[in-house]
Write a structure and sequence with these properties.
The chain contains seven helices and four strands. By secondary structure, the protein is mostly helical.
Length: 183
Amino acid sequence: MTNLFVAALVISALMGSLLVPRRRIGWVYVSILPFCNQYLGTALGTVNVYPSDLVAVVVLGVLLIRGWPFRHFRFSWPDILIVLIPVCFGLSVAVNGAPPGQALQSWVRWTSWWVLPYFIARLSIRTFRDWMDLRRPMLYLGVFLSIFAVYEALSGKNLFYFIGVVGAGEPGRKFGLYRAHVC
């Protein structure tokens, strides 16, 4: 069931990215991301792969294919720094005596959490109007997710547990509430 759900997320990201106008590809990423729960991850050798990683790769790939060449895009210092941060983090883990698999895992995690979403935003939001268009879906998803986060914090039951995608986990507690892992 979990693999089927992850496959549906990736196919939805692919189809959505191909069908919407190029300036709204960010909507696809923002809309699918809340369903990419951390409980849905799987190990691929020494690297843990999460649905958010797969969705980000698919959306960025479609964005690159549909928008090449990018007339309005030029690399800047923040672009270079955002790419160097995961590289430095992976190297620091490797230099401190960790096994190569752990260094690779650190690099992949930081790249998928920071670099891929940054470039999705950087390539899909080119004007102030593009940013204004993205505000509304982000607001709706924030309200939608906050409802589930509050419910999970109070009850300890995750949304994905109810729809049968993941089994019941033991969430951490702090200040008498459960730690919410909505996405």
